[in-house]
Each structure stands twice: as structure tokens, then as C-alpha cells.
Design a protein that fits this description.
The chain is of the alpha+beta class and 101 residues long. It is 25% helix and 14% strand. It is built from 2 helices and 4 strands. The strands form 2 sheets. Strands 1-2 form a two-stranded antiparallel ribbon. The chain has a two-stranded antiparallel ribbon with strand order 3-4. Strand 1 and strand 2 form a beta hairpin. The chain is elongated and about 60 Å long.
Length: 101
């Protein structure tokens, strides 16, 4: 994949120059940066096609502070080294149906 070039400027290199510190501090592996740039540039929000959030239900008094309330489950096989496996989430709205208004 090559970066988008406008007026001789490679926008991927501009993206990396402007966001390197954020990407590194967030622990985003550099082999995913070009895919991330492409998905941001094209507005590809594909998380929901590849994983889902599951609420973890605890029995009364079983949950303790620090215990997870949600977990992600993949909907397909994922190889962590594959460069397509970085996902954008435009928002996440979690609710119980009986509480929705």
C-alpha cells in the first residue's frame, strides 16, 4: 500500500510526522500505521464486522471493583501480525433493552 499523494506530498508521511508520538505512546505497532491512516482517510469503521462486545454478568455480590464488565469476542479468525487487523470504532452505545427510552 502506498500513501495518498497530493501535490507531491505523501499524506501518510505527514500523518506519521504529526501523530508518531500518539501512535507510539498508545502502543500501536508501526506495521499497522499505514492501514490505520488508510481507514481514517477513507472513514472505514469496520470493527462491528469483525468483533462484538459481550457483557459479563455476575451473580449478586460476585463482582468486585477492577473485575471486567465487558469483553470483546472476534467474529472471525485473527492473526495479530496481519496488517488489516486494526479497527476504528465511531462510537459504542451499550444499554439494556429494558432501560432504553
Amino acid at each position: 500500500m502506498t500513501g495518498t499523494v497530493i501535490n507531491g506530498v505523501d499524506l501518510f508521511h505527514v500523518f506519521v510526522h504529526q501523530h508518531r508520538v500518539q501512535l507510539e505512546s498508545a502502543g500501536v505497532p508501526n506495521h499497522l500505521w499505514e492501514t490505520l491512516f488508510s481507514k481514517l482517510n477513507k472513514g472505514i469503521f469496520d470493527a462491528g464486522q469483525n468483533f462484538t462486545l459481550l457483557q459479563i454478568e455476575y451473580e449478586e455480590g460476585e463482582w468486585k471493583p477492577g473485575d471486567p464488565r465487558w469483553r470483546a469476542q472476534t467474529l472471525s479468525e485473527m492473526d495479530t501480525k496481519h496488517t488489516d487487523h486494526i479497527y476504528l470504532v465511531d462510537h459504542s452505545w451499550t444499554f439494556k433493552t429494558e432501560d432504553a427510552r
